[in-house]
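Example A, followed by Example B.
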Amino acid sequence: MSDRSRRLRGAVGALVVACVLAAAVAPAGVAAGLAGAPDAQPANPSAASPPSATAAADAVGPGLRSANGTVEVVVRFAADAGPRASADDDGTAASTEDLRTAAASAQDAFERFAERKPGVAVERRFWLANAMLVTVDTESVAVERLLDVRGVERVHENFRVEPAAAAGDDGAARDVRHALAGPGRAPAAAESTSANATYGVGTVRAPEVWEAYGTRGEGATVAVLDTGVDPDHPDLTLSGWAAFDATGTLVSEGVENASDADGHGTHVAGTVAGGNASGTAIGVAPGANLYGVKVLDDTGAGTFAQVVAGMEYATEDPAVDVLQMSLGVNEEVDEFIEPVQNAGDAGKLVVASAGNSGGGTSSSPGNVYESFAVGAVDESRDVAAFSGGETLNTSTDWDNETLTADWPAEYVVPDASAPGVNVSSAEPGGGYVNESGTSMAAPHVSGVAALVLASTSRNVSDEELYATLRDTANHPDNATESDARYGTGIVDAYAAVSSTEPFYDVASLDSPPAVERNGTLDARATVTNADPIRGENRTVALRLTDPANESDVRELTATNVSLEGNDSATVRLNGTVPSDFATGETTLEIASPDGNATATVRVADAVGTVNGTVTHAEANATLPAIDVVVDDGSEVVAETTTDENGTYAVDVPATNLTVTASNATYAPSTAAVTLNGSGDAASANLSVRLRNGTLAGVVNASDDLAPPANATVTVTNGTNATVVAVEAAENGSYAVDLRPGSYDVAAASPDFGSDARTDLTIDPNATADPGLALDPKAATLSGTVTNDSGDDPVADATVAAGSASTSTDAAGNYSLAVARGERTLTVSAAGYAESSTTFDLSANESREANVSLTPTAVFEVTSVSGPDEIERGTSGEFSVDVRNAGRAAGNVTVNSAVSPSGTVDPASRSLSDIAVGATRTVTTAVSIGGDASTGTHEITASTGDDARVEAFTVIDGDDGTSDGSGDGDGSGGGGGGGGGGGGGAGGGGGTSPADGEETTGPTNGSDDSTNEATDSTNETDLTNGTVEPTNATEPTNATDSSPNGTETPAGDTDESIDDETVDGAEADGADESTDGDGTAAGDAGDGGSDAPENGGVSDGSTPGFGPVAGIVALLSAVLFARSRSGEA
């Protein structure tokens, strides 16, 4: 194709593509237009028009109102579409799946809008905040126009990050960064003030919790949302890690990827759960699980999307209990309300710093009402000057009335305080550093929260944990109200843990089986304090459910139970059964606030007592642990068990009753009693017998085939008396009940042998299998073997089936014992074709199987004869005699082979229609190579029925040489060379014998008799293209023609080149000459392998035409290609 054609085709292709794209894009552009997109319409017609300028301005962040170019925005969706409603009314946590589902539903319309609208791209979806991070090209879409999409409530910045925190006044970008205050870092060793702990750890009284309650936060998990964590610090053990970029995208996960280039997060993590590798404890809860969640970059700053993504990650993990957030944005930021509230609804406590701008200020998310905001105090317990704190007015300080509807009119920030001045903790690289700020105070509170959670087995809600931390804080001024400097005071771990209620477990409930309406119900249970904390006056109650109404549960009585940590006590409770309860079976419960135990009790109008003793019927002994069941004819009304003396007593409704005693070992025994009224008593003494045992199993066959279908199992006792005889089923199975004892068991079948077991023990209510297996009796095959052509018996035929075999007698009869199953009967005899028949034989079966054999030819090799010696390089002829020794005429193939070397021609000869007794002879020539080893060789002649081996000796020749040169005595010279192309010339024979003198071998110098018989080699001398008749025994040298017409004298056997006689054969065929038409002169029809006769030698000096022809062909091809190229 020409360049022009290619360009034209490319242009056409481009035009087609452009047309296709134009056709596809044009309608899509219309559909994606804001005004025409149905999903972009507001939810109701009244909202269809664009919002007013004032409404749009209020719903768009100040930094976005005049934005140009491509901007990154956070789109927030209406609160009533958010997930808060999924929290249960009883305060139990909502699942993160509920939050995801609600957010997805609210965001669906915007997602579809963005897919169709050029210039709008969704970068990240959030569910903890009902929000999306969106990139907007303001040249295509104004930010205000996003408010037209259904469900969108407002649009704000992604809080672009700056290195320094500053108050965000109107129009300025808000900054998210960690809450670090003071002149900077002061590297130092971990400083101990008491109990080998930093002053901060000591101030919150963590060591007292460790010692008094034996807990260091084990089982609780705190996620530190910060700049990262150094995983290699000796005081820190990370259990989880994740890192997010500025768009909220997860960029790394797994502890092996943890890092902290800033150091702030490592310091915070050390205060939460650091160890004491330096000899000084730096962490409040060193046993807690620690997660590192990187939401601030290496300068200590981040974005709203980053922080919310980290909060989502921690909230979604069910193991996380506390979100530790030493970060913030100055002033009140409504955007943080929703993620904090939803984290709380999911059961997480959000602990955040109050800010570092001093009194009268605070930062978000710490100042969100649901957060636990933390202020900072110094070692003297005085509030740090930088510590934030203020009283907030919900209606004037916050804009989102929907999310703040449940807040009080006013509240104080911080909630409480903790050490935050010159706090010593970990820094990356394994060292320690002093830091100041509310960032340092908040992790003390998170550590205390972990101690509280670890101290109890109860499920402590985030609301309870929040209240415990606030209510147990210690105010230095003993103030009873929260203030804007301390909050409720300095957190106190020991007081918080001590005030936490432990888990009370209830077990081992003991109650009467029956009670009367309006009567006393007396019950007791074991109550255990499962935690190390002392339980003070915890309520344990006795409750009863109306038998006719499951929802009517009455508390009959209750008591307060105080228990030391890990202690237990038996609590006895009694109350009156309501008179308005129905009669019948119901549930009794003794319950603590944490656990309960239940039992079944029967409510009756009148209750009496049944008692008695249970004895062994055969041994006259009382029996313990026998189950006693009392029923009234329609249902069981009571159950009990005999004591160690075999006695029982049970309260039951007063009526006509049946008492039954039994257990797994003893068979049931019953007695009838009657109780006439309340307080009546009746005795029922019962005697029980051992339950029968069972003898059961399958009578199998020892050969693993089908079991006997008619086996009998006989059981005898110690006196050899038959106890029982049972017929096994067709599949061999059987079962019989026997009294406990020792028995002998035997099985037998008419077609099988027998099997037995002695002293087999039968236990009560148990099954014994003796594992019986019978040997099947052999089947019998018998019959007569005859000749199928005349029905004459065939004597001495071999009859075999499986491993059994025999021979027929003179009358052709046989009898064979064969194992049962599928068996193949094979019959063979000399002169007959083998016969095979398959039978499926049963045990002990007798079957007649007569067999007719077909006569066949059998060929014996009766002799192999030939020369005793063969010279190397020559051949010898062998005769093979084959006789039909069979019973029918037939065809045979005689195969011959020689070893260890040599060839046979022909190697195979077929003979047909050989009569019975006839002998035929075949001949074959054995050729031995000139380089064959001397000594014994063997020729093997074989038919399909017989083979015979004849040995001969290979010897050196006395009248020939092995190199192919004639020596004048008439022996053959060397073989001819194989030439490429037309074939090389062969080596010549010796001089011809005198007239009248016999030759001792073939005249062909190769001494190959086969070749001599089939090839007229060298009968024509093609010299220089001239054909002349030659003497068959003295040909001219057929290979010494020169292609340029120069002749070499014929028959010259002594010509040499460079004083050396040329070998009679050329390995590469280079001495091949050609005639005028290119036919190889020496070619005898076998590819140029024939050797010249009569001692001729190849001169080796004149090349053949092979290379020349090759060169000519190559030049022709080149010229042809050029001519074709010229035509093109």
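Example B, a separate protein, is given below in the same form.
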Amino acid sequence: MKANLQERVSAIHQQAVQVQTWTAWSWTVGVSLAAAITAELIDFLLRLRSWPLRILLTASVVAVVVWAVRRWLVPWWHSSFSNVQVARRLEQLHPRLGERLSSAIAFLQQATDDPREGSLELRYAVVADAESIAADLPLESSIDRRPARRALAFAVALAIAALAIGLWQPTNFGRALARLVWPVGGPMWPPRNQLELVTAPTAVALGESFEVQLIDRNGHLPDDATITLQFDEPARRTERHLLQQRGEKLVFRIEQVLTGFRYRVTGGDDDSLPWHELQVVQPPKLTDLVSATEPPAYSGLKPERGGRLVKMLAGSQLMIEGRLDRAASAVRLQTATKEPLPEVQLAADRLSFHSPANSPWQPTKSQHVWIELVDETGSVTGRDGPLELQVIPDSPPSLAWDQPGDHGAFTSQALIPISAVAKDDLAVQRVELHYASIGSEPQQPQVVVLFEQAKPPARNFGEGDSRPITHVWDVSQAVKAAEGASFSLQLVAYDFHGQQTSTPPRRISLISTQDMQHRLVQRQGVVLEQLGEILRLQRQARTLVNDVAARQQDEGKWQTRDLDALQSADLQQRQVQRLLKNPDDGLTKQIDLMLAELKANRLQDEGIASRMESLQKQVARLCDDVLPTLEEQLAAALKTARLKSEATGDCADDSPLSLDGVTEQQNLAVAALEAMLGELAQWDNFSRISREVALLKQEQQKLREQTENVRVTLALAERDAEPLNLARQTAQRQLEAARLYDKLQGRMESLLAKLRDSDPLAAGSLADALDAATRLAIGGQMRSAARQLQEARAGQAVQSQDQVLAGLSEVLDRLASRRDQDAKRQLASLTAAAAELNNLTQRSENLAREAAAAAQANDPQKRQLQRLTKDAQRLAEEVAELARKLERLKAKKPGDSLKKAGQALGGTSQSAAGGNGGEAEQQARSALEDLQKAKQELQQDIQQAQEDLVREQLARLEAELAGLLKRQQNLVTETERLDGFKQANNGALGRAQQASLRSLAQEQRQLADAVQQSSEAFSSGETFQLALDGVRQQMQRAHRGLVRSQTDDSVIAPQQQAVARLKQLITAARSQDSAPENEEPAEQGPQQQTGGQPEVRSIGELQLLAQLQTEINRRTTELETARVASGDFTAEQQTELQELAAEQGKLAEIILKLVEQPTADAAEDNNSPAPQPPADTPPPPQKKSGNPLDEELLKDLK
């Protein structure tokens, strides 16, 4: 037991000594390592080169080591304690022990037989007691090992750090350790900065710039990099400058060097760069520089010569020539990006050069090009320039589309104006219109060439090309051009480089003529409103001036307050001028747009066109004659008024201001505007009535269809409730239509009362329409149909509705008769009136014979005269009706004669009723004479109308043929181009050429169709139609050849023949001097005038006959020559021969008609007895023999 307690304390003693030892050594080693590592890092980072600093650093490490030894090892070495001291420390940590443990250890260390230590039993008892208490205590855990662990961890961490550094940077670690151990000697650190001069010039030209560029191969640019300059002239001096950082380089630059110097660069810890010497030399200089550009061939640009600024088109070739003031060993072209440039060729004398030396130079981008000069020593002594190259790419063309607007509406026969501006930086080659029908399936666009030129015009670079494009597109020539169709239009412009630009597509819709008329009526209403606003403003201006004039008259002097009134009047007058002549939305602009829309939609025959033309003329007279004078006089009055208002004192003048001229002109303006507004308002009402009648007719047509459905349903379903309900609903709609018609008829009657004095022609048409409406009882028929539907008599209702539709159609015809201004419709109407007049004349002759017989008969009862009364009265009414019709057709002379005839027939009726047979006979003969005179005058009007029709159709035909000729000429050019390509490639066409050939064939077919449509639309000459048919046949022949991929003479020949005949047609169409103008219409006999329409032919048409015969002769000769050469006709020649035979037959028929017509007319004149002329009528002039037109024709044919 004793041994156990003592062993425990001894073990604890040993452990305490071990802990103390580890702690002392760990701290000493750790601190020493920390000092050494810190010193090495300081040496590494600072790159110490001074040995005193290194000795100081080593001494610092030694000092730290000594301090650590003194701090931990020396105390550890001198520390010594016994087991009793250990026991006393344990007693402090465990108070239960008291002093028992130290006493027990002391007793255990004493000898048992030493009498000086006291009782042995007592010592045993103390030891036993201490041992018993210590047995329960953890004495071994009383030692604190944490300081030792911390010290050991510190030492181990530093050792690991030193080992890691040594493994990571063994060279640097070893060098640092060696330098630390041997501060006076030892290895040296490599420099941190490794500087290198990228550019270190040794020679520069006098006055040129000097620049050095410095880099650090270690990637650490020093902040203190300095260049040292040492100058010897004009005085010795040294300059130091800091280099400036530019990106990853340090740069120093002198803009102008005048003397040489030595220089050296240092920075950071690198001062190893050597000295350089810069020499200033006299360089060769550029005395002349010329640049020449050769644009690409497609551009059409002229070659240009210039200097240092070169503006060139992309793809152009550039050449540079220059001269030097002294010889150079080399000349190079340089750019800032060091791109490869063409070599420069020096001349033999080395005083001139040119570039490129070999291959052509085509710059691709804009840049600055420097000319680098190398002297004879091989040093670059200067750079001249820069040569500024501006390479401008060829931009695609641009298009600005003006007309038509997007979502426009036109009729199916419209001539749509195409207006745009095409621009290109060089030249526009072609502009096309691409159109396609919009439907459920995508359509292949059709192409119309609007503009084309074969080669670009010669011009200088930068001038550009701006070309207005105007074209009239006949939409009726398009495929699927019908009401309700829609087309997508797109303009495409091409330049000579093959670039193209397309405009966004625009959509147009084709609507019916009635819908277009409705739109025009609405726009007419807008014009009417604007005209009303102009009149209101003009009246206000007049009122203001009249008020000023009235106050002056009452007060006898001028008042300053009147100036405000005149200024207000001037403002009102300016507003009137703006509303009339504003180029954007003025009244004149609105009228111009309406007339253009009427012309585009081929609605010039509509009455609204004549009204707008009349309004346009009246507005022009107002703006040109009245308003300028009014504004001038008002401005003069206003100026005088201002002077009166500003005058004071003795200069004051309060005399009345003269406003008579202003008032007079304002009255004229108001009167003109009131006349225009009244006329247009009445016409607007008339147009709206016509439109409402048309809409009512459409509604009635729908009702008729619905009634037919009711009739069928009732027949199948007998008396079911559903068909009966449908019948009652239809009856209600029919009653509503009847009420609308009654209101419309009331408006027509009100308008008729207003129009009787202002517009007799319109009043006549409206009166005729009202008479037809009253006579046909349209409203009653509508109500009858409604009543029949209510009673389920659908069959009878359908019949009533048919009568309503017929009546509405007649009313519309009566209303539309006032718009019969077109030459063709005018001619047809006059011809119909002539037929009716022939009938009336025949009946008048019968009436005259009966009156003569009744006058000679002995009839006491006068029964024959009583019968003549009714006949004469009925005939007088019909003659009066025809007179009104001719008056509406603007046939004034025959209308007046018919009025006289109607009055005479009325006198005949009255005389017959009074039993005066002789007077009745005389009145009947007078009426017959007036009818015969009316026939002659009407025939003259028919002749004039036919001449007008011929002129109009020829003018329209000339315009159409001009467009067709241009298109055909383009086709000939394209065919010849394809044929030339085909011959150059052994008869083969490429894919692109084949596509062009297919497009060419399609265009040729479309052109033939267009010619056929023009022929069908022309009705004023068989000769023109025959010539147009010949053009169509030649185009069809060319189309057949193109379809067979032929481009030789078999295709080109008919194309050229079509071109020649089109030119003949255009020449003939321009000869509009009709031959009948040389003859007096009175030369025609009365019986001749009663026949059909006279044949009006122009000299141009007769000349065309001769040209057609000559052409037939030539083609026949060519065919015969071909037959003799080959022995027989080919299939194509056989077809051409048949066409020639047919054309010759038609030509013979036309000539036969011309030759036989005078003979037939003369025979008719001989066989038809002429009526006796009145006594006071001079005899007609002797008719000329022969026909000069026929003579001209026969002379040409010979």
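On Example B: The radius of gyration is 60 Å.
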